[in-house]
Amino acid sequence: MNEIQKLFAKIEVLPPAPTLIPKLMPALTDLNANFDEVVKMIEVDPALTAKLLQICNSAFFGPAHPVTEVRQAVNQAGYQSVYLLASILSGSECFQMPEVPGVNSKHIWKHSLTSAYGSRSVAEAIGLEPGTLFTAGLLHDIGKVVLARARGQEYGLLLIRAVQSNTPVYLSEETAYGYNHAEVGARLLERWDIPPQVVAGVRYHHKPSDAPAETKKIAACVNLGNFLAHAQDKPMVLEDPDFNFVVGMLNLSADKVRECRERLGESKNVIEMMSKK
After folding, report:
1. Which helix (H) or strand (E) holds 222?
2. CB neighbours of 9 closer than 8 A, spacing ≥ 6?
3. CA distance 180 to 197
4. Do residues 211 and 219 touch, judged by C-beta distance below 8 A?
5. Is-contact 139 198, C-beta < 8 A?
6. 166-198 burial, b if ≥16 CB within 10 A, otherwise e?
7. Contact 113, 138 (CB under 8 A)
8. Averaged in consecutive runs of 10 residues, what is the pLDDT profile of the chain (277 residues)?
């Protein structure tokens, strides 16, 4: 952990915290008790409000009448949808990193979005709170942003070599640095006061069996969401023994896995729209 603290000290400016996410998360379980507060939290950010209304009025949502205020957006699109959109808009600011060979910020952001929707689909399949898993999936690779900012071209070369040798990135990081992006990301989320269950999902998303008992399913959902995201471009990853292991951890049937993939596929248009930074 001391080495990760030293890593943070190397960076002049750490990624900005998505301050709205921890404020909005409590309403996921009881919107009725928090409706007015949620509307106010979004309204005080003019840029976020403008983007949110623009998206809610887009052809993707196809509203019957123009949405002109946050209250309408929450009522019409539903709080879950507004939470997801607000989280994406807030979280996208965190994924700014140097463009060096091997580091592709647009690709990492799109993969994070896809993993978020993948993790959400798995959460729905096993009865966990989908917004929480969406958040964990969205932020699961935030540690890569820290490493890219701190190590620049060196980290880019590590990513290139990992691809060339077909080695998982987190193992290459552990060999080179003694820690991986999941651990770095979790430490950053703790600094941001992100809820512990999300932190655990990020910290253990490559090693869900190491997670504490109360967060094993959360970590496994993020792990599986990550696999489903990679499978969009490389279906062969679904033959990986680790994929089958986590499917077994969650006791998912082949039919349930197929449903998760189908639900993720239904999110393709919104992922494309929101990944255009």
Report:
1. helix 216-231
2. none
3. 19
4. yes
5. yes
6. eeebbebbeebbebbbbbbbbbbbeebebbbbb
7. yes
8. 85 82 83 78 86 82 82 84 88 88 93 96 96 96 95 96 96 97 96 94 97 97 97 92 96 96 92 81
Residues 175 and 184: beta-carbon distance below 8 Å: no
DSSP state of 51: H
| Rounded Cα distance, 149 and 87, in Å | 22
CATH number for the domain spanning 195: value is 1.10.3210.10
pTM of the model: 0.91
pLDDT confidence of residue 29: 77
Q: Which domain holds residue 111?
A: 2-274
Structure tokens at 60: 């993707």
* Residue 97 DSSP code: -
Whole-number Å distance between alpha carbons of 251 and 245: 10
Q: Are 221 and 119 in contact (CB under 8 A)?
A: yes
- Tokens 């998206």 belong to residue: 55
> Residue 1's CB: how many other CB atoms inside 10 A?
8
Task: Provide the number of structural domains found in the chain.
Answer: 1
